[in-house]
Structure prediction request, 142 residues.
Amino acid sequence: MTKYLDNALDDQPNFQVFGSNQKNFLPKFNFYLYADALVVAEEPIIAEENTQAITNPILIIEILSKSTEQYGRKLKFLEYRSLPSLKEYALVQQDVPEVLTFFRTQADTWKEQEFSGLSTLVVFKSLGISLDMEAIYRRVDF
Prediction:
């Protein structure tokens, strides 16, 4: 996923893409979470508590499996929403071509949009880009 995001953002140097090894610090809860992919606008803000963690992603992407789906859809999303910088949260299904995005329209208001089917473009409003669903699921056998 990070490869496709990187390629799509090639001409927009103000975004940085990170993979699943990047820690996110959530000050409200005083703990860390890892996402499957995330994007930061401009420069990452490093957490004072840990120089390996950032606090300002604008887009967080989670790839869901059967065992992580409930946590990713509910509690993890609630935890991530505590980050003021977060504008968009995306859930990518592992076993079917389906992506669900949540875009923050106001402080506590999120708009949900579902994209399904390999011929669909997934729109990431926070980045102003679209990714081809076929590219996202390129090496996935259904």
Remarks:
- The chain has a mean pLDDT of 94.
- The two ends are 17 Å apart (CA to CA).
- The longest helix spans residues 2-8.
